[in-house]
Write a structure and sequence with these properties.
DES1/DES2, membrane, lipid metabolism, 4 strands, two-stranded parallel sheet, 407 residues, two-stranded antiparallel ribbon, single chain, mainly alpha
Length: 407
């Protein structure tokens, strides 16, 4: 039947819920809902996956993690990237200011009942945001990006840990270094969920539980999967934190309420909090792509040391948080075609409600070596504790010189 003369032929009636356009065939909807976006699309072929992932197992890949190869390509195309590397002096001042801010708020609430609306609201809105900021300050310091020296960075991490209430800064360093060096390797990268978590939490209620208590999963997982050998720095960190907690609870009027506020803030920081979405946003598989790292470029990075620039961070761990936007701007041909998350809060909501995303949506690889003593893997400088590669800014590539540093 010919189109009505009162209706323009260019209208696509399929947009109105079922009627076919007379000029174009109806297209099947995409297999999965779009959860990510390409900031400046140039290669739209990579915007969607094809076949839904099997929810009964993780996504097992035999390919090398992508960051090492992209790092080499960027350094070849933009050798000036080395000028972005190095510590950021501003970090230590922000850390100290945030520590003082959180302790001041805790002191002001020392006579407020922990179950009052005022206390709970402050712990969630202010405390959760501030302690999440300290989590990511410790992450930044872990990469030795606050000071040039190792000892100074570790001491600052211990200070940043004080308002968190639970000692974790030093142990986080070892596990996080392995997360970078052995990304996705089963039994070594402890950022990965375990098979037990997949079995128990692979449903809506399980994902709600996981998102609510995800900070506890990160804290307890090492004890079940693979513990590290403690060093004297571990004991220094634990002793400092426990002494601080004891002194506050015992000798400061209202000290127990202060400590309750600090620990409650840490719980909310790693729970159903807008900033908490970054834990899921960073490495879960979305849109059925075989992409294991995602960035987020929104305004919440202001509170999170730009950790949303996560592809950039994994590519160059020695570039501090203040220069990650410059890194992205330096190599747009590499970063502007990678799907990224538009919202951290929506990441958590979609993770819970979307059956195509869950505990299973993580890339895993078989371990390359012994789980207790993983093989040494070369890593872009600035991160390692014992061995740091030296970069000469005027050179086009990293030099092979190895510098041994004392702790």
């Amino acid at each position: 039947m010919a189109p009505s003369p009162n209706v323009p032929e260019e209208i696509d009636f399929s947009l109105f819920g079922g009627a076919e356009s007379p000029s174009a065939p109806r297209q099947a909807p995409p297999l999965l809902p779009r959860r990510t976006k390409i900031p400046h699309p140039q290669d739209l072929q990579n915007s969607y996956g094809s076949t839904p992932q099997d929810p009964s197992d993780f996504l097992w890949l035999m390919t090398e993690e992508p960051h090492r190869s992209r790092r080499k390509a960027i350094m070849k195309a933009h050798p000036e990237v080395t000028k972005l590397m190095g510590h950021e002096p501003l970090t230590k001042y922000i850390v100290l200011a945030v520590v003082i801010l959180q302790l001041t708020i805790a002191f002001l609430l020392r006579h407020t009942h922990p179950l009052s609306w005022k206390f709970l609201a402050a712990a969630y809105v202010i405390g959760g945001t501030v302690n999440h900021n300290l989590f990511l300050a410790i992450h930044e310091i872990t990469h030795n990006l606050a000071f040039k020296g190792l000892k100074a960075n570790k001491m600052l991490a211990i200070i940043a840990n004080l308002p968190i209430g639970v000692p974790y800064a030093i142990s986080f360093k070892g596990y996080h270094m392995e997360h970078h060096k052995y990304l996705g390797e089963d039994g070594i990268d402890l950022d990965l969920p375990t098979q037990l978590e997949l079995f128990c939490l692979n449903n809506v209620l399980g994902k709600v539980f996981f998102c609510t208590f995800q900070i506890l999963f990160y804290a307890l997982r090492p004890g079940f999967v693979r513990s590290q050998k403690p060093t004297y720095w571990h004991f220094i960190g634990i002793a400092t934190q426990l002494s601080f907690d004891f002194l506050v609870a015992t000798f400061v009027p209202g000290g127990k309420c202060i400590l309750t506020y600090l620990i409650m803030s840490s719980f909310w920081a790693g729970s159903l909090h807008p900033l908490g979405g970054h834990f899921i946003a960073e490495h879960y598989v979305w849109d059925n792509l075989q992409q294991e790292t995602y960035s987020y470029y929104g305004w919440l990075n202001i509170f999170a040391y730009n950790v949303g620039y996560h592809n950039e961070h994994h590519d160059f761990p020695s570039v501090p948080w203040t220069r990650l936007p410059a890194l992205r701007a330096l190599a747009p041909e590499f970063y502007d075609t990678i799907p990224a998350h538009p919202s951290w809060p929506m990441v958590m909501i979609n993770f819970i409600r979307d059956r195509n995303v869950g505990i299973f949506a993580r890339v895993k690889r078989p371990p390359r070596g012994n789980k207790i003593t993983p093989p040494a893997v070369d890593l872009d400088g600035g991160c390692a504790d014992e061995v740091v590669r030296v970069c000469q800014p005027e050179a086009k590539e990293w030099q092979g010189d190895i510098v041994r540093q004392r702790r």
